[in-house]
Amino acid sequence: MIVSEATGQPYSPGIFAKTWRKIADAAGIPKEVWNRDSRAGAVSEGDEAGATLGELQRMAGHTTSKITQRYRRGENVVSSQELAGLRAEKRKVGKT
């Protein structure tokens, strides 16, 4: 759960999305990247690191392991570190 520093209460979904996008824009994160993408990346990276399905489910805040399994990208996908490098290279190319 993400709590607002200003109110001490959980963010409403709309307010959090607007706040996240404002920060993402300032950081140069492309519009097609959403906050939810970070959860899928975290689940996949945790899976690669050997976390159990239960640990991944709790971290992601999923109510069922079936949902968590959908977020796991599996062995057929480039590792998280390799993918991060590819994404960084693409951003460099886009700036020329």
Automatic annotation (TrEMBL):
Keyword Nucleus: no
GO biological process, one term: DNA integration
Assigned keywords, A-Z: DNA recombination
Region annotation (Disordered) ranges: 37-96
Family matches, as InterPro entries: DNA_brk_join_enz, Integrase-like_cat_sf, Integrase_catalytic
Chain ranges of the Tyr recombinase domain: 1-88
GO molecular function: DNA binding
Name under which the protein is recorded: Tyr recombinase domain-containing protein
